[in-house]
Every structure is written in structure tokens, then in C-alpha cells.
Give the backbone structure.
Amino acid sequence: MNEKTRPPDDASLRSRFRGLLFDLDGVVFRGHVAVPHAVEVINEMRETGLGVAFVTNNASSPPEDVGDRLRGFGVRMRDEEVVTSAQAAAAYVARLVPPGTPVLAIGGPGVSRALQGVGLVPVSPAERAAASRPVEAVLQGFGKDIGWSDLAEASYAVQTGVPWVATNGDLTIPMADGIAPGNGSLLGCVRNACGVDPVAIVGKPHPPLYELAASVLGVPADGTLAIGDRLDTDIAGAVAVRMESLWVTTGANTPADTALAPPSHRPRFIAYDLRALREPYDDPVVDAQPGVYRATCGAAEFTVTGGAVRGAGRGTPNQRLRAFIVACWAAADGGTPLDLDSVRRCSETLVGEQDNFDQNNPIRNNPIGQDKLFERGDLADQDAQGAP
């Protein structure tokens, strides 16, 4: 993709960037349902001349299948604009072994296709089991049909000492019916059997996937906005490559999660949904006094006093959301422990007042709790040292 021309400075959030990287699960769709407003906004962003690419840790499908799915929702796009963790992981494996090397492919069709794309020979678990065919590396990604025998073959191969590379470490994946186990949970099965870690986990939050996506756009990191719903992958990955990010509430994490996030998981921009790309962005202003932290955003105001969070019911929904989160960040950075009950009450109120949220959506009703998100020993965090 050629270098993009900066769109006219219309004061909207989109006008600050030359390229947009959209996460998929929880941003564009949830299972088989499109996220409200996502398709219309993405198509509009393309019409402004911005570079657009779609970046996903889900390695199960090849780019052309992902493209078909997006077009089925009405997104106007080309297959080459899809960048998957399988592609980034296959490129990593190709640096470890010579062309033509047989590699055990664990996961959906996207894993095998990615290996073929870099000149390696994918070997399925059934092929390895039936013919005792030796492999010289293992690439493990997500697949809905992965079973015990697949994980067993991966474990047997890893125990021979060949390099084991993982596409991503997401413990969960948002689906239409709720939160389901992700690739990180399946990696844990192999890790527990073998007692070793992958030599690398390549997807978000590690740099290679975003770096590959930026190269596809032809836009440097400082001109690109990463858009995601997960703090521990989408947002932390952007922070790792010094790329600005927009967090939206339409997927896995809640306003309470974001309010309690450490600096390494904090987005630069905050919004309920993708419609914020069309609008000027109101940055909150913080007034910090001893024991009192006040954030105002437009007419919205939230104050943290003695750890308790309180807000005034003024301003737009996005202004209130931003003021709430930034007030909590200021208090935490100032050494004030936050009262979790008041944080969650404010979060629930903010979610409930925005008309585009479906309160019957099980993803909204089964969020990843903050007490688990940053204390659970997520594979993605444990293996940061293994990323290239």
C-alpha cells in the first residue's frame, strides 16, 4: 500500500492520523454480529483517504476468509488489508528454520496458510501422528476445532526440543454468546505437559504484529492509530511500539477495567464506540490537590477523594467516560488507592447510560474483572520476554 496523504485537518480525531489499525473481535464484530456503528464508520474512514488495515490476534482464518467475513458485514476492504498473528508468527518461524522445513501447524486454516506463505511446509497433527513424520518447529495458533489429540501432538513435538512459536497469548476471546477460551488457554495445556515456554509469542501485545501491520499500511507508527477493546493486547501492544491507541467499550474490557489499568495498558484516546473518530476529541484536564484529584472534560467532571470516585451528570457520554477514567488514573498515579466499589458503580452507570449498549449482550455482562486482568498471570504478560 502506498504512502497515504494526510486527510484535511477537520479537527476530528481521524484528522490526526494517516492510518487506522482496527482490531476485529470486539471492535468490528462480536461473534456473528457486527458491532453497532462499526461498519458505517470504517467505510467512512476509507472514503476520507485514510489507510485502513485490520489486525487480529485470532490466527484461525486466512486473510481471504477474514475478508469474506468483513465484506459479509458490509465492510469495503481488500484481503491484503488483513494482518493476522499467524502471518507474523510464520514470518518469525521462517527466521529460525530454512525454506521447505516441515512445521507442525496447530490451529485453524490460517496457521497452515501462513506457513505456506513464507515457504515452509505445514504438517497437521494427524499427519504427524499417522506417519510419525518429523517436524523441525511447532507453530500454535487458535482454532475452534482443536482437540486433545492436537495438543498432545504439539506436546510430543515440543518435547523433542524443536522451537515452539505461538501466534498469541489471549486467554479469552469474545463471542456472541459470551467469553470463550482463547489461544493462551490452549498454550497453557502444552506448557503444563512439557514444562517449557514458547520461544516467542508474536501477537499483540508484542511488537511484531503491529509492526507488520504498519508496514502493510505504509504509514509509520507515529502516524497510525491502533483501535481495540482489550487492554492487555490491543492497547498494551500499541504502547509497546509507541503507537497511539483508541480504546472502545464494545468488547472485552469495561470502563472500570480501563480506570484501574496500569500505565502500560492505558490508551491515549477513550470512547464508547468508533463514532468518536468523526468528532473532535476533548482531552480531560486534571487538577490534582493533596488527596483530591479532579478531571474535567467539557462539562463533565469526576473527582476522587480519599479513593472514592464521584461524578457530576453533565457533559456528553464520551466526556463523562473520559473524565471518569482520567480522574482514576490521576489518583492512582498520585499514590491514592482507589475504592473498587465506587469505581465499579461509576462504571456500571456509564455503561448503562449509553444508548448503543445492549445490556442483554453477554459480553457486557461477563467482563474480564480488573482483579483478574492484571493479577491472573496471563500468558501474554508472562511471555513478554520471549517475543522478538
User: Anything to note?
Assistant: The longest strand covers residues 51-56. The CA atoms of residues 69 and 149 lie 29 Å apart. Residues 13-83+205-277 form a domain with the Rossmann fold fold (CATH 3.40.50.1000).
